[in-house]
Amino acid sequence: MRRFLIDFSSDIRTCSYCGSFFNTGFLCSGCWQKMPWSQNGHVLIRGDNSGSQFILKYLFDWKANENRVCDALLTSLKGGFDQNVFRKLAALHIRRHVVMSQPKAGVNLVIVPAPSKHSRADHAFAWGRALSDILDSKFVPSLEAIAVGNQKNKTRSERNVLELKGHENFSEFQGTVVFVDDIVTTGATARAAYFALGRPPHFEVWSIAYRHLAAE
Ligand SMILES: [Zn+2]
User: Fold this and answer.
1) Greater model confidence, 185 or 14
2) Which structural domain, as residue segments, surrounds residue 159?
């Protein structure tokens, strides 16, 4: 529990978005307030064709080009990221979505990050590590993206769907498998993860943002 109280106040910094001086956590409070915080904080995603569903828990409803602060934050995560930002976002996510009144709430969770497309640790890993550090949960990077044969005849959105291989099977796992990715759009990667991990009986997806496409 000690790690739950993260101290962001040790150094005076400037807001990464507007540049104003402040003394805690990456963005100034004005910019944090401008972020598109999700109302419900969760949405259901279709699992397999039998009608199963799983829950996506997230912080921000993101539509590109509609909120400059959010665009800037998410873009900055993609670039050279700062682990402190992920820790701050993870703390916010857990405060909202995890019942910490239960002792050892994180022990029954296994955190599985989306694999990098470039076979190196990236933002989904950073997000997953920040979450598992705070919760004292196991961090299990057991998914691997595999190259998909002929890409030529596929549409662009089909090409963006990763084919995943799981190195561990959670079909009998009694705890909850939490698949984490920084941004979830259609849920296709999460669905691929669900199957690659052996359709865990308790499966959730946690992301920083839920991306809404312009057509919605
Ligand atoms: Zn600001």
Assistant:
1) 185
2) 36-65+97-211
